[in-house]
Write a structure and sequence with these properties.
The chain is mostly beta strands and 298 residues long. It has a single domain, classed as TolB, C-terminal domain (Neuraminidase). It is 4% helix and 48% strand. It is built from two helices and 25 strands. A five-stranded mixed β-sheet has the order 1-22-21-20-19, with no helix packed on it. A hairpin with a 5-residue loop joins strand 19 and strand 20. The longest helix has 7 residues. It is globular. 49% of the residues are buried.
Length: 298
């Protein structure tokens, strides 16, 4: 029987919300089309942590921030989707940390950073927003010294999107949105990717995801809702989101003081940026769950 958790709205008034993170007692998410990273307290008090509205884009596209992560020294990394660069923010200044142009084959997407400061970055492999046909693509890696590379050893993926790392730091899991599955890869001692296996093949399109301390995945599906799935097994829990208010749940992260609060980013309009900004229906919802995040990432 599937355990159903009720959700409550924490805050709203954003564009398309994405890439939730819990770090050092604070909750962060990307307010994509408002070009910023926002923090929210557990009481719903919001503050802009990083504002990229004044950044001059390196390409003929507006700056859209997506995947984020934190280096061991506390600096924030954020992917600039269209520029194909990783930015680093130290609380006051922002600069390019890694340039992925020439390595990425499409707009870059989500990110997870390991305990050593190594960033694993996903890319769909094609421009979804331009209506391009789906294509396979590898993951990208930015090493702890800032050197970027293509993770060729991991193979290619059918639309890699959200990512998480297990509590022991030995397994990377990514949601393949076009493959309708979750895929797990061994993380070797040097950070390279090893043995690959299917974690969950439920023919469900999952977007953003996180891992709990038991190794199960919470995956946000715009179609099927937010589900907790076991490796090789069924969905054992879900979160009840009111579609009329929340729209679609697209990403999730475990946080709170005990890391048993599931933060869910929800949106209504992803393709029309101006409408998404103007209507401001993007929101954050939370649900209390049974298994904490522990030392998993993000």
């Amino acid at each position: 029987m599937t355990r159903i958790h009720e959700a409550r709205q924490l805050t709203t008034g954003y564009s398309w919300t994405e890439c939730p993170r819990w770090h050092d007692g604070r909750f962060y998410f990307s307010d994509m089309y408002n070009h910023r990273v926002v923090t929210v307290t557990e009481n719903g008090e919001a503050d802009v942590y990083l504002d990229l509205n004044d950044r001059k884009s390196l390409v003929d596209e507006e700056v859209v921030c997506v995947g984020t992560g934190f280096l061991p020294d506390g600096r924030l990394l954020v992917n600039s989707m269209w520029e194909q660069v990783v930015l680093v923010h130290d609380g006051s200044t922002t600069e390019v940390y890694a340039d992925l142009r020439g390595l990425a084959v499409s707009p870059i997407n989500d990110m997870v950073v390991d305990a050593h400061g190594r960033a694993y970055i996903s890319q769909l492999g094609y421009n979804l927003f331009a209506g391009e046909s789906a294509a396979k693509a590898p993951l990208l890696v930015v090493e702890p010294d800032g050197t970027p590379r293509v993770a060729e050893e991991g193979g290619v993926f059918d639309g890699a999107n959200g990512m998480g790392i297990t509590a022991d730091g030995r397994t990377l899991i990514t949601a393949e949105v076009d493959g309708l599955r979750l895929t797990a890869l061994e993380i070797k001692d040097d950070g390279s990717l090893g043995a690959r296996r299917t974690f969950f093949d439920g023919q469900i399109m999952m977007d953003g995801m996180c891992v709990d301390e038991e190794g199960a995945v919470w995956g946000a599906s715009p179609i099927s809702g937010v589900l907790r799935v076991l490796e090789g097994g069924p969905a054992v829990a879900s979160v009840d989101l009111p579609a009329e208010q929340a729209g679609m749940g697209v990403a999730c992260a475990l946080g709170g003081a005990d890391r048993r609060t599931l933060f869910i980013t929800c949106g209504v309009e992803v393709f029309d940026r101006e409408k998404s900004r103007t209507e401001g229906r993007g929101s954050i919802w939370t649900a209390r769950v049974d298994v904490p995040g522990g030392t998993t990432r993000p």
